[in-house]
Amino acid sequence: MHPIESQADIAAALPPHLVQFERFADCGHGVVPDAPERALALIRNFILRG
Fold first, then answer.
1. What percent helix, strand, coil does the chain show, rounded to 5?
2. Are 10 and 2 contacting, i.e. CB atoms less than 8 angstroms apart?
3. Which of 11, 36, 45, 49 sits at 20 to 30 Å (Cα–Cα) from 18?
C-alpha cells in the first residue's frame, strides 16, 4: 500500500499502454467494495482495450 502521490508516480513511470491511473473519491483501500460499479467498469474497459 502506498500513498496516492506515490501511486501516481508509479503510474507515471510505466508505459502508457500498460497503466490507467484513476482516483476514487471517498474510497479506502478497497475500491471495488467501496465503488463497485465504477471500479468494475474501468477494469472491464482496460481489459477490453488490450
1. 60, 0, 40
2. yes
3. 36
pLDDT 10s digit of each residue in the chain, 50 long?
Answer: 788 889 999 999 999 999 999 999 988 888 999 999 999 999 999 999 87
Residue 13 neighbours by CB distance under 10 Å: 8
Question: What residue spans define the domains of the chain?
Answer: 4-49
Q: Are 1 and 29 in contact (CB under 8 A)?
A: yes
Tell me, what amino acid is at 40?
L
Grid cell locating 11: 503510474
